# Entry
Amino acid sequence: MASAVIERYESRIGRRVRRLRIRAMKSRWGSCSTSRAAITLNLDLARLRKELIEYVTVHEMAHLVRANHGAGFKALMDGLLPGWRLLDRELGGLPPVLCYLQKQAEKARR
Ligand SMILES: [Zn+2]
# Structure
């Protein structure tokens, strides 16, 4: 599922994902290493509906272009996946936080 999403969005984002890892994670749904162009997704995503899996995958891919959750990131997401804000809210109500970068961005804002 996630690799199909990656294939679909790579050309739109203009970046290649060099490595996709899927593993059990307690604290987040996904993470992105921008320097290695590597995306890690939480194994538990498989339990969620496909729109949410797509959202997390595209979200992490978007970090290859914008390594924060600022206005540029949001505008990029608006272009890629117009319904992402609703999906983000839905996912926000579920236990792990969306991604590691999110926590850093929140810290930076304080
Ligand atoms: Zn993020």
